Amino acid sequence: MMLHLNSQQAQFHKLFQDRLAFEPSLDASVIDAVRSVLADVRRQGDEAVIRYTGQWDGLSVSSMAQLEVPLEQMQEAFQGLDAARREALETAAERIRRFHEAQKQSSWSMDDGQGSELGQRITPIDRAGLYVPGGKAAYPSSVLMNAIPAKVAGVRELIMVVPTPRGERNELVLAAAFLAGVDRIFTIGGAQAVGALAYGTESVPAVDKIVGPGNAYVAEAKRQVFGRVGIDMIAGPSEILVISDGSVSPQWVAMDLFSQAEHDEMAQSILLSSDPQHSLDVLEAIETLLPEMPRRAVIEKSLADRGLIVDVQSLQEACELATLAAPEHLEILTHCPEQWAEKIRHAGAIFMGPYASESLGDYCAGPNHVLPTMRSARFSSPLGVYDFQKRTSMLKVSKESAQALGLVASELAWGEGLAAHARAAELRMQPVPKPRY
């Protein structure tokens, strides 16, 4: 079912990298369709959003007011949850909030020794948009993971869009939005929802940044509006890489591999094992456990097409391969996992020890589950408070500092052929002229 390699076999590194390779295919029809929808929303506003919502979600309405969820309904959804579900949601929200509070950055300043004050001011973005998948594919955990960091950062207004095909609303999503402090919800989705958030309509306010997962049309719409607004990332299929020394139950490992494979046929699950017998035990556990999984067909195809087990010579080699893979989720199921975590340079999130299952990170541990995929952990980070904050450089220059810095700036400006830059610095080096009045 899964490709099984040994790191010492011929052409191993090529086979390994070929398995890692994933380039999302940009279907020309998707690109063109999204471009057309965005253009319509930009020109026609609410009218276009209502038309596309009727066309694709089967909702026939006459005004955007019918597509906005009142705050009272959000509150009712939260209060209507059974006690156990509500407590679980509250516990997850509190842990996520507490973790992200620790990410808040502060403004700072420094003296350059010549009387000038230099620094950095941290401010939140004014308004953020949150896209949440709707209908049967409803993810309240994504609401918490995207909305709470925004609120912790101090975002003034958070606008959520969520499609409700044929009017099918998920009460847990609405409850999560209420708990996280979402300000307004519109039951719209697809590229038209992204366009409404990016450009603004008569009813939907334009935002400064759009975050949250969606289908191919949503991802392409976010790509096309980037620059007018910020976006979190263009996410690929989910990934998990497990490093194991054979000390953890093979059933646990198999189920952790399943936990990502069940997302999508294109998801990737990899095991790097320093114990060849453990690899065989995991394969046996996969065959035993798979028939009982509700999403068996999805898991089976994911493991067959993109799954991988590698027998490595050492945990050091496993760490080197894991760093090369730069996975979204990395589990280190070994003795003394901390020492091996230190050797990993690229990963979205690292789960250390037998009890740190990736699923805890998805829902309630606290760190964000919006993570870089497709090896982008080499240069990007999990979603966090910092994604909703801006940094502004602050400069207050003294007369003395202007004399010293003026010489440097003038010399460099003349070297670049920018006379006005040079003269602007030089003028500050001359005696200050007396005021005319």
Structure description:
With 437 residues, the chain is α/β, with parallel strands linked by helices. The chain folds into three domains: 3-20 and 236-379, Nitrogenase molybdenum iron protein domain (Rossmann fold); 45-231, 3-Layer(aba) Sandwich (Rossmann fold), CATH 3.40.50.1980; 397-437, no CATH class. The protein is 45% helix and 16% strand. It is built from 17 helices and 15 strands. It has helices at residues 12-20, 28-44, 46-57, 71-79, 83-101, 140-153, 171-180, 190-199, 216-225, 250-261, 276-289, 296-306, 315-325, 337-341, 358-363, 399-415, 419-427; strands spanning 3-6, 68-69, 108-111, 117-124, 127-131, 157-161, 184-186, 209-211, 230-231, 239-244, 268-273, 308-311, 329-333, 349-352, 389-396. The strands form three sheets. A six-stranded parallel beta sheet has the order 1-12-11-10-13-14, sandwiched between helices. Strands 2-7-6-5-8-9 form a six-stranded mixed beta sheet, with helices on both faces. α2 (28-44) crosses α9 (216-225) and α6 (140-153) packs parallel to α7. It is globular, with a radius of gyration of 26 Å. The N and C termini lie far apart (87 Å).
